[in-house]
Design goal:
By secondary structure, this protein is mostly helical. The protein has one domain: Serine Threonine Protein Phosphatase 5, Tetratricopeptide repeat (Alpha Horseshoe). It is built from 9 helices and no strands. Helix 3 runs antiparallel to helix 4 and helix 6 runs antiparallel to helix 7. It is globular and about 50 Å long.
Length: 228
Amino acid sequence: MLDKIFSIMIKQLFIFLSLATGAYGYAQTSTEKALAGQITKLESAEKPEDLQQSRDYFMKYVNTLSRGTETKKEDWRAYYYAALSMVRGEINSMKAGNMQNIEETSALAEKYIGGIFVKNPNNAEANILLSQIYLLKSLNNTSGSAANLAKANDYLAKAKAEDKNNPRIDLIQGEIALNSPSKNAGDKEVAKTHFNAALAKFKTYTKKSNLDPSWGREDANYYLSTLK
C-alpha cells in the first residue's frame, strides 16, 4: 500500500516538475521574443521619441535585473542596449548640429557599460561602444580631443583583440579617421577604406545569438554617401 502511494506521489511530482519546466521555458522564450523586438526597434530608430522609448525600456529592464537574486552572464545585453540607445541619440543630435548633452549622456552610458563588465570583462561590443563614446566626446571638447581620441583607439584595440572580425570595429575606425585632425591620422580616403571593409564584413559576420547587436551597416552606407 505504501509503495503504491509513494509511486503516485513520484508521478505527481514528475508531472509538476514537467509543467514548471515548461512554464519556465515558455517565459524565457516570451521574454527573448519581446527583447528581440525591442532591439530591432532600437537599431532602426531615427526619431528622438523612438530612441527615448528604447532608452526607457532597456533602463527598466536593467532595473528588473538588479532586483533579482542572480544575474546571468547573458543579461549583459540589457545594460548594453540601454547604453546604445543613449549613444544613438547623441549621434542623431550630432547630425542635427546639437551635442549639448554629450558629457552627461556619455557618463550615464559608461555607467551602464560598467554593468556589462561585471560578468563579461572581455566584451568586444562594450569596448566598441566605449570607443564611439570617446570619439563623440572628442568632437564636443576640443581641448580634450587628443586624450579622448587616444581612449577611443585604446578601447577599439581591446575590441579587436577580442573579436577581430567584428564589422563595427571597422565602422568606428572609419568614424575616427573621418573626424580626427590629419595630425591624428584623420583622412577621408582612409575612412572610406574602413567603411567599405565594414560593409564587406557585415556580409559574412555571424552573430552569436539573435539578441546580439547587428547595427552599423546603415551607418557605413551613410558615411560613404557623404564622401562621394
